[in-house]
Structures are given as structure tokens and as C-alpha cells.
Amino acid sequence: MRDNEYHSNNPVRVVIIEDELSARELIESMLNELEPGWEIDARLGSVESAIDWFKSNKHPDLIFVDIQLSDGLSFEIFDQVDYDGMVIFTTAYDEYTLQAFRVNSIDYLLKPIRMRELRRAIEKYRSWVQKRESEVPTAANLATLLKNFSDREPVYRTRFLIRRGESYAIVQVNEIAYFHTIGHEAIAVTNKGTKQVVDFTLDELEEQLNPRDFFRISRQMIVHINAIHKIHRLFNGRLSLDLEPDYEGEVTVSRQRVSDFKLWIDR
């Protein structure tokens, strides 16, 4: 009998590994509604913090983990941690790319996560734990699948889950004109001029966004190609941009980025 096998009298112990605060809160809220008796042992936001936690704590029965974390792919966790429980991936990756996960009896939830999909995944988990050990997929069985996935061409973010008060909204990446910072917050400005706080730094966004469409013009701003209305040359070798929708303030391409910016524009 597996140590982490589900029993009706024992609460299922869960760990959520997700670097987006709004997504992490949504998973927890939905789990509390569907399975109020389950215990959430930890809420982790990076590969490094997950590895540290697993090395010093009793392992859970079930992990919900995003594929792309702020400091790398979550598969790196299982390269360093001998975890033999269940794994359900949560991700914004393309569904076609992820068919292999269900073929290999490993489940995944596409963002934005919906209640019916989470309920189906929980039902699948319950059926898993009733099988013989040899039939139950675990992180230890993922080596070949994960290597093949890691070797794929990069897949970039297509949408954001944005918290609005007590609810959440979905913002498609192709609706965003540019990102900029205010203090320690990153703000997404849509093509319609609406502004949304996102749970990422510009460094993290630069890794997640398709470089064909987005360019980091300075430490404070990332712009979409379609948001650039006009480009002006400045006397000191820098460039000034007019953006649509309009940005309140001067928009300049830093001197160190001008050459790369010109190459990006001229592709």
C-alpha cells in the first residue's frame, strides 16, 4: 500500500507551486470549495523554494505545479527531489503541446482554470490512488517525457489571470500594448487604455513574452510592436517613441538598447 494513498478518513495533503499570486489564490479557493477537508501544506512560488521545502518537509500526496516558474521549469524540482506522489500541472501552454501529459496518464489544467476541469482532475486523482503501485504515475516516471518537453521550442505566454477585487479577469497577451513600472509594481496597459497590475517583474515578463512581438526598451518599459506609432531620433543617439494608447511621460529607448531595437523593428 502506498504511504500517500487516499483514505476516506485521512485528509489529502496538497502543495501548490505557482509564481502568480492570483492563480495560486484561485486554485486554493477552488480546492477549498470542492474539497474542504483537504489540507494545503505549502504555497510555493519558485523552483528554488520548492526544492528547499521538499528537502526539509514531509512530502504531500498531491502537487499542483505550474510548468513555467519565475526561476525555471518546474521539472527541475523533480530532478533534485525524490517525490513519489501525484502531480497535476497547471499551465498556460498550448493544449496541443500538452497532449502527451494525458497520454502518459499525467493530468494538467489549462489556465484560466475552471471548476469543472479541477473537479475532473480530482476525480482522476482518486482513481489513481486506487490502482496498484505499478499503474500509478508519479514524478519519478516522468524523466523521458519531461526531457522531451524541455527540448521543445519555447512556448510563450498567451494570457494573464488578473485579480480584480474579489474576482478574476482574463487578459489576452495580444490585447496588451505595453508594460511599465510604477514603484515596485508592473502595469499592463491594454490597447483600449485600461491598466492592470500583473504579478511579475519586467525581468520575468521579458522571459515570458514572445520577443517577436515585445521589446524591452528600458528598465522601466516593455512595448508591443503594434503600440509604436512614431519613432523620433534624439541628439544623444537615443530614440523617442510615440505610443498608442498614449503614455503619460517621455518614452525613450535606452542608449544600450538602440541597436537591438532597430534590428527588432527591421525584421
Outline:
This protein has 267 residues and is an alpha/beta fold. The chain has eight helices and 17 strands.
Give a verbal description of the structure.
The chain has helices at residues 21-34, 47-56, 75-80, 99-103, 115-129, 143-150, 202-208, 258-265; strands spanning 13-17, 39-44, 62-66, 68-69, 72-73, 86-91, 107-110, 159-164, 167-172, 176-182, 185-190, 195-198, 214-218, 221-224, 228-233, 239-243, 252-253. By secondary structure, it is of the alpha/beta class. It has two domains: 13-150, Response regulator (Rossmann fold, 3-Layer(aba) Sandwich); 159-265, OB fold (Dihydrolipoamide Acetyltransferase, E2P). The strands form five sheets. The protein has a five-stranded parallel sheet with strand order 2-1-3-6-7, sandwiched between helices. A five-stranded antiparallel sheet has the order 12-11-10-14-13. It is elongated and about 75 Å long. The termini are far apart.
